[in-house]
């Protein structure tokens, strides 16, 4: 394609071109570094359409926008009523967690998982070597004469 002239750039800016012509002009803007100054010149010659009443236009747009609840306001359900509002409050959750934690502490639940008590379960069983020593000393005490056993 030949380089577009000023009139073609004005048609492009005003949106009077067909789909394939617009795509070709867009591709030309991306690939040809000399196309951008021509495009900018066409933009300067074409005046932007003036809005008849800016305030009325802004009011019309704002009227179409549906109000969204802000992130700070929690959404409330109409069916839940008062109970839902109470349970939706995060302080209720913090207080409930603190009460459950205090209950566990007073019941000693966390004492079982303390670092010093992790080996307590293993210490309850008697080591095999100790059992062997007790068997041997018991066997030796059974062999000793009765007179030596009574002197103790």
Overview of the molecule:
With 152 residues, the chain is mainly α. Among the domains are: 6-45, no CATH class; 83-120, no CATH class. Helices cover 63% and strands 0% of the residues. The chain is built from 9 helices and no strands. It has helices at residues 6-14, 19-31, 35-45, 54-64, 81-88, 90-107, 120-124, 128-143, 146-150. Helix 1 (6-14) packs across helix 3. The longest helix is centred in the middle third of the chain and has 18 residues, at 90-107. The termini are far apart. The model has no long low-confidence stretch (mean pLDDT 76).
Topology:
Layout: H1 6-14, H2 19-31, H3 35-45, H4 54-64, H5 81-88, H6 90-107, H7 120-124, H8 128-143, H9 146-150
Helix pairs in contact: 1-3
- As a percent range, the share of helical residues equals 55-70%
Radius of gyration: 45 Å
**Which structural class is indicated by helix and strand composition?**
mainly alpha
What share of the residues does DSSP label as strand, in percent? under 5%
Give a count of the beta strands, DSSP E runs of length 2 or more.
0
Number of helices: 9
Order of helices and strands: HHHHHHHHH
Global morphology = elongated
Q: Span between N and C termini? A: 121 Å
Mean pLDDT: 76
Structural key phrases:
9 helices, elongated, 63% helix, 152 residues, mainly alpha
